[in-house]
Amino acid sequence: MELKLADEKARKVAQALSSETCLRILQLLSEEKLDVSTVARRLKLSQSHISGAVSLLEGLKLITVDFMPGKRGVRKVCEAAVEKILIVIKPRKNLSFRLRSKR
């Protein structure tokens, strides 16, 4: 079966949410603002892995990032930008989509 949808952003958000790391980051940030190193420590993952996930979530506008002074340089402080995510799957009028099954 093949299904084609037009909304690329919905696909990207769904893909990000399928990542356990991204989902756990969103859950943590829904409770409080945290810097990247604190998120990494709480999730017991590397800071570079968390930084990549944070960049993805920020690009999708699911979180916001501010830079604050830290003990040794600048801290990247993250906050959830959304409380609820709703993905609507409804074809546009001019969208042609097909369901195919093998015979």
Write out key terms for the chains shown.
three-stranded antiparallel beta sheet; 103 residues; alpha+beta; Arc Repressor Mutant, subunit A; disordered N terminus; 17% strand
Descriptive notes:
With 103 residues, the protein is an alpha+beta fold. Helix content is 40%, strand content 17%. Strands 1-3-2 form a 3-stranded antiparallel beta sheet. A hairpin with a 2-residue loop joins β2 and β3. The protein is elongated. The model is unreliable at 1-6 (pLDDT under 50).
SSE arrangement:
Layout: H1 8-17, H2 20-29, E1 34-35, H3 36-43, H4 47-59, E2 63-70, E3 73-80
Antiparallel strand pairs: 1-3, 2-3
Helix pairs in contact: 3-4
Q: What's the arrangement of strands in the largest beta sheet?
A: 1-3-2
CATH architecture of the domain at 9-80: Orthogonal Bundle
Radius of gyration (Å) = 18 Å
Q: Which structural class is indicated by helix and strand composition?
A: alpha+beta
Helix content: 25-40%
Please work out how many helical segments DSSP would assign.
4
Uncertain residue segments: 1-6
How would you briefly describe this protein structure?
This protein is an alpha+beta fold.
